[in-house]
Amino acid sequence: MKEILLFYKDSILKIRDILHADSIDSDGNTAELTFNISEGSARGRLTFLIPESNLLDRTSNDVRNLKIKNTDMPIYFTISIGFRK
């Protein structure tokens, strides 16, 4: 997961602390990490879905509290961006 976040650190997440998501939600089997993004008039969200993972501390949005059980599973992501005048 760290390698994926470092990839986006050079572009979309360049002004963000990649170790602290805006939100992390987990149902005990799949975790969802959300980063809000803002560049000029563009606002959006980068969301990662990580199968077979669990959040160890529900009071923190620290990515290091995420336990990935199966590292062979794909990680899915979506990017949504809108523009304001």
Oligomeric state of the chains in view: single chain
Low-confidence stretches: none
Give the helix/strand class. Answer: mainly beta
Proportion of beta-strand residues: 35-45%
Could you give the distance between the termini?
A: 35 Å
Shape: elongated
Radius of gyration: 13 Å
The main sheet orders its strands as: 1-2-3-6
Total strand segments: 6
Short description:
Helices cover 9% and strands 45% of the residues. The protein is mostly beta strands and 85 residues long.
Describe the structure.
With 85 residues, the protein is mainly β. Helix content is 9%, strand content 45%. It has 1 helix and 6 strands. It has a 4-stranded antiparallel β-sheet with strand order 1-2-3-6, with no helix packed on it. The chain is elongated and about 40 Å long. It starts with a helix and ends with a strand. The model has no long low-confidence stretch (mean pLDDT 87).
